[in-house]
Amino acid sequence: MSSSPFDPKKPGGGDATGMSRGLVNYGDAGFSLFLRKAFIKGAGLTDHALDRPVIGIADTGSGYNPCHGNMPQLVEAVQRGVMLAGGLPVKFPTISIGESFAQPTSMYLRNLMSMDTEEMLRAQPMDAVVLIGGCDKTVPAQLMGAASAGLPAIQLITGSMLTGSHRGETVGACTDCRRFWGKYRADEIDATEIADVNNQLVASVGTCSVMGTASTMACIAEALGMTVPGGAAPPAVTSARMRVAEETGTVAVQMAKARLTIDKVLTARAFENAMRVLLAIGGSTNGIVHLTAIAGRMGFEIDLKALDRMGRETPVLVDLKPSGQHYMEHFHAAGGMTTLLRELKPLLHLDALTVTGRTLGEELERAAPPFSQDVIRSRDNPIYPQGGIAVLEGNLAPGGAIIKQSAADPKLMEHEGRAVVFEGLADLAARIDSDDLDVNADDILVLKNIGPKGAPGMPEAGYIPLPRKLARQGVKDMVRISDGRMSGTAFGTIVLHVTPESAIGGPLGYVRTGDRIRLSVSQREISLLVSAEELARRAKESPVTVPSADRGYRKLFLDTVTQADQGVDFDFLRPPQTVDRVPKA
Ligand code: FES
Ligand code: MG
């Protein structure tokens, strides 16, 4: 066998290439390689083409995902980059999740996509993988799956959409979607205008144009060292985005040759850098859940209290909606992550390794020089003096809750009020617009049963609409509390991710209309002003029935999904042991 071209150990027989990875089928490695090569030659490839690193390209194009609408061009550019560097690109599909089309919520499917990604990386022969994602859940799903698979992996972001123009005003999805819909609900604009703005909100393919979850995860991926430098910001339809894609392919080949596996990049220090960036960009609250889940796959536990401490010394610097004014295309023009990371330098671990094989600090040294711009502020002139997200605690949320303080009304951040409770989404839909609803602007809206198991999938319903009768009176914000999430593009004084959730018997499940609740962002407090004895009495009187299902993915989900403080990952996908806590206290 030693002279055989199908000897897996022989250079050229496949040893230096991904073609020989995992040859365990049939119990005969030589035969397995023989078959593998026969079938890939069936696709028109020669032996010469196979004698080099194989770079998998995870293609997540889908007609249901306009945020990935530039996928064909991206794949082509990645393939070019791979071939220019002497590798063999092989694209393969995984499921794709488009935020607006996924029921019951995209979060319900994130772990499924992570499992698809992980298992396809394990199953198929490749030396490294380029993960192409963009829409909210796709980048976290890919990073979670790749973290578990352990190969050399690099993230390519699809890029943001362009902004549109409505009657002379710049608009973009989806902070403006909510703002205009709010005006329509309050009868401030008519049916013609709401139809006009609908044509303008999504001006091209690509991800939402504000600092929503997609942009947040793009910035986090770059902060983690998982993209090429400057990989987060270029919009989807620009030549800069295509050049990033080509470079990504080239770097993937270098990573394959150097065996730069993902564990060398996704270190505790990289996660700490990503937490800084999440705070400094005024990022989506979903970013915490996703970062917790990705870190969890590497055995790291994110310490929410420490994140809050970091927040007190990390100002919001990026002036993008919903916390600020601008859009992703402006962030790109302002130098994107390079400008931001340079400003954050004293707060970062510059020795963290990136996919290029160089450290974050080395990449910043190599980057283009700074220039004057007005989208990314300096630390002495921030958009908001603290990090965008504060972590709350109290008897209403023993496992923690969060608030995006940079997008909240300062007048409501210290507030005590009467709870007006909705038992779930159906109850909310049935009563929120009723003229008979007993509610005042000072009340606190409480929505139950939208946690990980509750809805299920922790939908983005935490942005509870203001009761129509109050909206018509000109009320713009109220304190709202739930165990759900909210879109990264939303704004308001909104307490989210209350843990444990109501559906599994968390205290939130026992709040009743008329109870008093106290929110103090300065004290990081969320308290239900009801005695422990009374809560225990209510729990005994009407115990919760934890949701369950008989079969299928829903059963897997309900049986194994964890709470927000564990990233809403499935318990069996996390490694059995915690390696470390991030950040160090
Ligand atoms: Fe895909 Fe917003 S809907 S990024
Ligand atoms: Mg979103």
Describe the protein.
The chain is built from 20 helices and 16 strands. It is α/β, with parallel strands linked by helices and 585 residues long. Helix 5 (138-149) packs parallel to helix 12 (286-297) and helix 11 runs antiparallel to helix 12 (286-297). 57% of the residues are buried. The protein has 4 domains: 1-41, no CATH class; 52-162 and 204-366, no CATH class; 164-198, no CATH class; 389-544, IlvD/EDD C-terminal domain-like (Glucose Oxidase, domain 1). Magnesium ion binds next to loops. One of its GO terms (molecular function) is hydro-lyase activity.
Features:
16 strands; 585 residues; Dihydro-acid_dehy_C; alpha/beta; binds FE2/S2 (inorganic) cluster; 4 domains; iron-sulfur; IlvD/EDD_N; 8-stranded mixed beta sheet; Dihydroxy-acid dehydratase; 4-stranded parallel beta sheet; binds magnesium ion
